[in-house]
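We now fix the convention by which a protein and its fold are recorded. The integers have meaning only within a learned vocabulary of local backbone shapes. A record is reproduced here so that you can trace the correspondence yourselves:
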Amino acid sequence: MIPRSTPPVRAAIAWRETRNGEDDVNLEDADTKPVVSEDAGTTSQSTEGEAAGPSVVEAAAGLSVEAGAGPSVIQAAAGPSVVQAGADSKHRHSGWNPDWLKMPQFKNWLYLTQHGMFCRICRQHKPPIKKGPLKRAFIEVGILVFRKDYIERHISSEPHQYSVKHQVSLASGISFFYVKLISATYQPCLAHIMNYVFALGLGYSVMQAFEPTVIMEHEAIIGGFKCLYWLVKNEIAHHTNYPKLLSLAQLLGCDYFEKLKVDQRNNYQSHRIVDEMLEILAEIVESPILEEIRSSQAISLEVDETTDVSVNRQLDLHVRHLDKEGYVFNHFLDLVTLEDGKADSVVAAIKSVLQKKDLPVDRLYGLGTDGAAVMTGRLNGVAKQLTDSFPKLVSVACAAHRLALACKDASNAVRYMANFRNHLQELHLFFRNSANRSATLSAAATTLGLNDLKVKEVKDTRWLSQHLAVQNLQRNLPAVLAALAEEASTRKCPVAKGLYTFCATYRFVAALYLQADVLPHIAMLSKVFQRADVNFLHIKEQVPVTLVTLRRILEAGETPLPGTFLARLHQDLDNPGGLGAFSIAGEEERIRRGHGILERPREDMWARFVRDVLKPYICSLESNIESRFQHIEVLGAFSVLGPKAVTSNDVTNISMLQTLANKFIPGQDATVIQEWTSYKQHVLEGTFKDKTQAEIMQLLASEKDEWAEIYPNLSLLSSVGLVIPVSSVNCERDFSTMNRVKTDMRNRLKGEHLAACMRIAVSGPAPEAFPYTQALELFFNKPRRIKCSDKQCHLCTK
């Protein structure tokens, strides 16, 4: 039952009441049955010169509007039996009437051929045959009984209404929701309901959709590509959810998906056809990227290896290249399954990908790895073998990995800091593995008025995990100590007692505050190295700043810098509403079991902490960072292209230019030095004055500026310096994507299909920006069972 409050229904009923029975056609009282010729043809091309008129939606549904002028039709098409009535005649003789093509309810769907009258919309949508003859009038065969009431009868027929609604669904399922809802009950009012929708401004897209050139089979295939691409782009299981998404689309009004059901055995939803469509989508995403890479004057690779949920070794390759304007871009290249993790297997896989993708290996200048032994081995590592094959290649260990290792080595160098790190992880495990303990911790936080209370995990594979754990624990330490004390006293938990004994000490709190001062600077440097476009300039600029900050903390000694956490350590220990409630000042480390607690003045405890923990830790951290970042070999020579180099010693600059030329442009030392002498004046007084080194190198690398023609060798060196990777963070992001795509429930996804899913998820455009027409063309490169109604279609007839 349709609600009476529905606006189109009220409009239709009002129209019915004002019609006064005009133009009603009593189909049941028709005394003549339609006669169809047996040899009628099946052509669906419209007669040349048909008049343009109102919307096809209005005309197809029988909407009475004033007809516009239109050209005449070929009268001879109706055959010699057609007789035109005179102007003074009251009745027209039987036969074809050309004026029918001028009537708005007929003109946009009715057309005449030598085989009779046909309906353009019904022939396009091919409504299913539910009962009756297999050849229907106006659709499969033309009708040669030229009577107006027969044409009007076709308007209200079920096949015609089916075709009208399906044509509407092409444009907008929302705009014509009312039409689909009430057409079954109010068939005579359908045209005026549509008129109401057009009055609301919702019909423009439908008018565009009602073009004879729309091919339903093609629309169904494009719709299938849209559904599949949306699933893969959003990292959703596509094999199981693709048929479900098509069913949902049909439920929402996309009826053209029925065209995918060619017969009972072919519905274009099988795993095989879905995999073929996935490969087509991935090929379209990859093709323009490969073209950009091949046109770049310098490229580099980031390589890393991991294990997926199926315990298969996966080698990830990420590529860096420049566009014509000198900007750096990063793209996922491929994912290769390895039989083992040996260097020979990795090198063979890399060379295979470069050959398969047809990348210019003569322009391969950089290799970024995680610094593992298999990658950087001096005798037979991956970098060594690739450098032997490609002499211009420069291998760089990941800066983010190096920084994480420097922090870990600094902690291990100081015994107490290594113990401190282990207890952070034990705190996390203590509360994570028990709901009751977590509830106790939450209750303690509520009592103390603390929010966002969670003991974070510390993991070596997560570069910022210790910083987040320290930051959270420093803010919520009173609640954690209260929860541990509650567990130790109420539930007699020995683990809680041991953790409380270690954490409720002066040295633990001081170490926590020390790391709260140091780790934010390390985390800031790590975030810089995790940028996708990071290059050697970031190491050159950011590492010295971090080292200066660490030296300031070290030089402050027993007088902490103002504004730091260490500066308010004693104030927090005396706060009765916080740490002061736990009497931490009187609980120094036990000298020996059974000998009680040794009481010390607070000043002595602070001096001892500075001597035994603070200074050794800062010194170790500083030396580890310096040792891992000072030897950047060839990368350090690129500083000659910076603005500071032009004011320094020319002997040093010429030495660095020779280093770069010997590595990347053999035999061009003199030319490079000559170009740099002229370039130096532009930096001092010309265009490059007051610009940073990054801006200068980008201008030199741009192929759209004149600098690439004036200084071709410096332009190449700038391109090389920009693309050489100093980290493998893009591979780590690819691994995160792989873990989201290949889950425990999708553990059989592998090979090219896993790489295709990752390529779309990482590099694919937004679903609304994807070129689905190109996918349709590639889809029909192979013979398909699905065919469109257009016999002249250049796609289906391949």
Remarks:
- The longest helix spans residues 602-629.
- The longest strand covers residues 328-338.
- Strands lie at 110-113, 116-119, 299-307, 313-322, 328-338, 364-369, 394-397.
